[in-house]
């Protein structure tokens, strides 16, 4: 299930990254990627609970890495991303195993929540690495000036800034003034940013990571909610059971 869901997620990510990232027509691809990722997060968080151990965490991370390479190919850059993912998966296993071993009473919400932050972080890192070589960001390589889409954005800001001063001006003259000011601002911005245009792709890839991480709490809470439902369903289906056992506890005495 992890392998199939992971491959589906990376395929959705590849479709999303092959077009302008936040274009209106590309939102469906992002929605598919986000929905499948939430399902994958549920499966992984439950996997860390039911199948604990270093070997199991390596198997899970290996599956995610293998499906990523299948969709995006293999490179040294991607190998670095998968290595980070493996380390975060091992850390997640340590946290979940420690939580289970040290608890006197099982709390499914805490157990599922324990690994989700690391899982979301590792997947977002790989997405950002894939975005760096994607058509969506490669179009910004060898950039000589600000993209045309920025003209509308800058014009809107100028209009909001100067709106009060141009309130009494006729609409035709107002458009002429706004166009002239926008052109001048873009010209000055291009002159200022010209030495930095070569760094646009890595900056955009990092910016994508920051945007995704900023909304990462949505993925975490949705995955937690669905994971809790799956946990209860599996418990009712007797996939597992929770038993009480007598354990010895260490006590510090002086």
Protein structure class: mainly alpha
Assembly state of the chains shown = single chain
Beta-strand percentage range: under 5%
Largest sheet at a glance? none
- Give a count of the beta strands, DSSP E runs of length 2 or more: 0
N- and C-termini, Cα separation: 52 Å
Radius of gyration: 24 Å
The helix-strand sequence is: HHHHHHHHHH
Compute the average pLDDT.
81
Count of helical stretches: 10
| Helix percentage range | over 70%
Please give the structural blueprint.
Elements: H1 2-17, H2 27-50, H3 54-72, H4 76-102, H5 108-132, H6 135-138, H7 149-162, H8 171-193, H9 200-214, H10 216-236
Helix pairs in contact: 1-2, 1-3, 2-5, 2-10, 3-4, 4-5, 5-9, 5-10, 7-8
Quick overview of this protein structure:
The protein is mostly helical. It has helices spanning 2-17, 27-50, 54-72, 76-102, 108-132, 135-138, 149-162, 171-193, 200-214, 216-236.
Provide an overview of this structure.
With 254 residues, the chain is mainly alpha-helical. Helix content is 74%, strand content 0%. It contains 10 helices and no strands. α1 runs antiparallel to α2, α3 (54-72) packs antiparallel against α4 and α7 (149-162) packs across α8. The longest helix is centred in the middle third of the chain and has 27 residues, at 76-102. The chain is elongated and about 85 Å long.
């Amino acid at each position: 299930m992890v392998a199939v869901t992971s491959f589906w997620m990376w395929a959705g990510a590849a479709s999303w990254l092959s077009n302008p990232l936040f274009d209106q027509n590309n939102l469906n691809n992002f929605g598919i990627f986000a929905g499948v990722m939430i399902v994958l997060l549920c499966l992984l968080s439950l996997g860390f609970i039911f199948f604990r151990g270093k070997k199991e965490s390596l198997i899970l991370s290996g599956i995610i890495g293998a499906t990523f390479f299948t969709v995006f190919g293999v490179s040294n850059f991607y190998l670095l991303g998968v290595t980070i993912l493996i380390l975060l998966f091992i850390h997640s296993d340590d946290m979940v195993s420690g939580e289970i071993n040290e608890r006197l009473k099982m709390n499914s919400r805490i157990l599922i929540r324990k690994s989700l932050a690391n899982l979301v972080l590792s997947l977002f890192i790989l997405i950002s690495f894939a975005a760096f070589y994607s058509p969506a960001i490669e179009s910004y390589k060898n950039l000589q000036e600000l993209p045309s889409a920025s003209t509308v954005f800058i014009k809107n800001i100028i209009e909001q800034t100067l709106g009060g001063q141009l309130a009494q001006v006729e609409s035709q003259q107002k458009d002429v003034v706004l166009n002239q000011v926008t052109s001048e601002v873009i010209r000055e911005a291009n002159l200022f940013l010209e030495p930095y245009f070569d760094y646009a792709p890595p900056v955009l890839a990092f910016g994508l990571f920051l945007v995704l991480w900023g909304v990462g709490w949505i993925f975490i809470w949705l995955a937690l909610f669905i994971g809790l439902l799956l946990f209860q369903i599996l418990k009712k289906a007797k996939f597992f059971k929770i038993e009480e056992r007598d354990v010895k506890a260490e006590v510090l005495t002086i």
